[in-house]
Specification:
The complex is a heterodimer of chains A (about 120) and B (about 110). Chain A is mostly beta strands and about 120 residues long. Chain A is built from no helices and 12 strands. Chain A has one domain: Immunoglobulin-like (Sandwich). Chain B has one domain: Immunoglobulin-like. Classes of the chains: A mainly beta (about 120), B mainly beta (about 110). At the A-B interface, strand 5, strand 6, strand 10 and strand 11 of A face strand 4, strand 5 and strand 10 of B.
């Protein structure tokens, strides 16, 4: 069965500094990996995904994520944080298709960008 | 492109009452999901439809929860009878197919008192 861990409940970063939100995963096959962001009283918004190909994936709002197979990680990054990036971030994983297509979410990391 | 529509946005009911949520997915999306998000936790999949067939309902409490997707478009999720622990945000999502990214609605916040 697949699982995903977000080891940090809270990440604080100063505006203009680079940010990293960590995610590690466990799957039996090849992983399909996703990052979503949730603003207050809003649904989850898709940021980016890794299916196959280049390990560095670029997504919405200047975010990117690096797939590292040996470390089973898919950390979310941004070179320069904005106050408007403050939100709840979820990593999600889907195991390579075996018939069970469950998109499994982590517990979330709250990012606060300090002006 | 219109997003995933859900209603109602908020619902307060007493325990043992019943409640229903409605979802209209993005046009043309074959896959529809219902997730439960309890405060402080990540979303948990309740049920996944591919067109109008159920793909995964392994985490749906079938003694009280039911869902249907008639004609492979709109879907309803019902809880009967509700328990206090059902208080959560219920998120509907859709994707073009089972292997593409899912797009979420704003959710229905259910409070059971």
């Amino acid at each position: 069965a697949q699982s995903v861990a977000q080891p940090e409940d809270q990440v604080n970063v100063a505006e203009g500094n680079p940010l990293t939100v960590k995610c590690t995963y466990s799957v039996s096959g090849n992983p399909y990996l996703f990052w979503y962001v949730q603003y207050p009283n809003r649904g989850l918004q898709f940021l980016l995904k890794y299916i196959t190909g280049d390990n560095l994936v670029k997504g919405s709002y200047g975010f990117e994520a690096e797939f590292n197979k040996s470390q089973t990680s898919f950390h979310l990054k941004k070179p320069s944080a904005l106050v408007s990036d403050s939100a709840l971030y979820f990593c999600a994983v889907r195991d390579e298709p075996t018939g069970a297509n469950n998109l499994f979410f982590g517990t979330g990391t709250r990012l606060t960008v300090i002006p | 492109e219109a997003g995933v529509a859900q209603s109602p946005r908020y619902k307060i009911i007493e325990k043992r009452q019943s409640v229903a949520f409605w979802c209209n997915p993005i046009s043309g999306h074959a896959t529809l999901y219902w997730y439960q998000q309890i405060l402080g936790q990540g979303p948990k999949l309740l049920i996944q439809f591919q067109n109008n067939g159920v793909v995964d309902d392994s985490q749906l409490p079938k003694d009280r929860f039911s869902a249907e997707r008639l004609k492979g478009v709109d879907s309803t999720l019902k809880i009967q009878p509700a328990k206090l622990e059902d208080s959560a945000v219920y998120l509907c999502a859709s994707s073009q197919d089972w292997n593409t990214e899912a797009f979420f609605g704003q959710g229905t916040r259910l409070t059971v008192v």
